[in-house]
Design brief:
Elements lengths: L2 H15 L7 E7 L3 H13 L4 E7 L1 H10 L2 H5 L3 H13 L2 E6 L11 H22 L5 E5 L3 H7 L5 H15 L6 H21 L2 E7 L5 E5 L11 E2 L6 E2 L8 E3 L6 E6 L4 E3 L2 E11 L2 E9 L1 H8 L8 E6 L5 H4 L7 H4 L5 E5 L9 H12 L7 E5 L6 E6 L4 E6 L2 E2 L2
Parallel strand pairs: 1-2, 1-3, 3-4
Antiparallel strand pairs: 5-6, 5-17, 6-10, 7-8, 9-14, 10-12, 11-12, 12-13, 14-15, 15-16, 17-18, 18-19
Length: 408
């Protein structure tokens, strides 16, 4: 891939993604094998006036060794130096860039039980730091190719050609055009127009049905609102784009308001494990029964992570006309696959999806029904047969999706 185009992508992530301001700190989390592109992002941050850029290098191979060899007690600990870094993040609120290029199968073979328990214990300790930062800093998740990921998608190509093809699809789906920012601003306006219409309906619930077997009704809070595209940080009000790419109009339903069964239509890549062909049945808002053809143990761990993990935290609407869906590629990567089709999420909901959340505060939003959990795990449910109807608070039934696409 030409370096000039990669610089344009780095500029988009830094300048429009996190929209770094002069004097701000930046934290970048990236895989070791993506060091070249990470350095482009570091340089771009400094060009735009960042005070300090810190890189956390990630490695699934190292993670797998640590999971296999550390005791459960050691794996579950949050060391003092980790707490100090989290405290630094709370105090400085650095912008965050996560460059995702993980191998979808990178953690296959680990002790799922051990890993799940350690994540639960660590999550309880880390939660207070995350809550203290929630909504207050700019962040952006974007993708870069990894060799194993590229070969997963294009097994018949050589590694170099698979990497090149994955780069091309990432850049295309991320709207890295002649003028990426102009493309994103136009797209942003389209998403916001869709959200304005949805919010004008005053939706009480959504009813999902599909030929795959989905028959699910999800209830909303009185003040639930749909959001899409960019958002602004609390306090400083800096506009940023949290996901590149992004095709969704999303909201948080009311915790405890979900009835019926839903079938996933794409594999879920979770912590380096692929969960395939799974379904979940909800009663009184909580997952009570589920199954999967592959890695059902991992699905069970997700749902049992805490009380809120068994409830829904997000409903996202994505048409099958999205460029990611139109690429015809199953990316085995949640950032891309969730923007290919409609999805739901288990776990944590979003305070910002409550009208007036800035004044209400987090405690009031939770009281109104925003789900609370240490996790947020998206899974895809869209298909060419997915229909969605909205029931409004004045009793009307309004078509929202027909055959996997917008009905308006």
């Amino acid at each position: 891939m030409k370096k000039s185009r990669l610089r344009k992508y780095a500029s988009l992530i830094v300048g429009y993604g996190i929209n770094v301001q002069a004097g701000q700190d930046v934290l970048i989390q990236a895989n070791i094998e993506n060091s070249d592109f990470t350095l482009l992002c570091v340089e771009e941050c400094y060009r735009r006036g960042a005070r300090k850029v810190v890189v956390d290098w990630l490695s699934q191979d190292l993670d797998k060794i640590n999971i296999n060899y550390r005791s459960l007690e050691t794996l579950s600990q949050v060391e003092d130096y980790e707490k100090a870094k989290l405290k630094w993040r709370v105090d400085k609120l650095p912008c965050l860039i996560w460059l995702d290029g993980d191998d979808p199968d990178g953690l296959n073979g680990i002790d799922v039980e051990k890993y799940g328990v350690s994540m639960q214990k660590r999550g309880k300790i880390i939660k207070k730091y995350r809550d203290a930062m929630d909504g207050k800093f700019q962040w952006c998740i974007a993708a870069v190719p990894g060799k194993a990921w590229a070969k997963k998608l294009f097994p018949d190509l050589s590694t170099s050609k698979a990497m090149e093809k994955l780069w091309e699809n990432i850049l295309s789906c991320s709207r890295v055009t002649e003028d990426p920012v102009a493309s994103w601003k136009e797209h942003d306006a389209t998403l916001k127009a869709k959200c304005e219409y949805l919010n004008s309906l005053s939706i009480e619930s959504l009813h999902y049905t599909s030929k795959e077997g989905t028959d699910l009704t999800v209830g909303f809070m009185k003040d639930s609102i749909f959001l899409g595209g960019g958002e602004s940080s609390l306090g400083k009000g800096i506009y940023f784009q949290p996901n590149i790419p992004s095709e969704e109009c999303f909201t948080s339903p009311e915790s405890g308001k979900a009835e019926g069964i839903v079938y996933a239509t794409m594999p879920l890549s979770y912590q380096g494990m692929l969960i395939e062909n799974f379904w979940i049945r909800f009663k009184d808002g909580k997952a009570v029964e589920w199954g999967a053809e592959k890695n059902v143990e991992a699905l069970t761990k997700i749902i049992g992570m805490d009380d809120g993990a068994a409830k829904l935290g997000e409903c996202a609407l994505v048409p099958n006309t999205s460029p990611i869906r139109q690429s015809g590629i199953l990316f085995y990567n949640t950032l891309f696959d969730e923007n290919a089709t409609c999805h739901l999420a288990l776990g944590k909901g979003f305070d910002m999806c409550v009208r007036g959340y800035e004044e209400k505060g987090s405690a009031k939003c939770k009281e109104e029904g925003v789900n609370e959990s240490m996790i947020h795990v998206d899974f895809m449910i869209g298909s060419d047969s997915l229909d969605i109807d909205a029931k409004t608070r004045d009793g009307r039934i309004v078509p929202v999706f027909r055959g996997g696409d917008w009905a308006f």
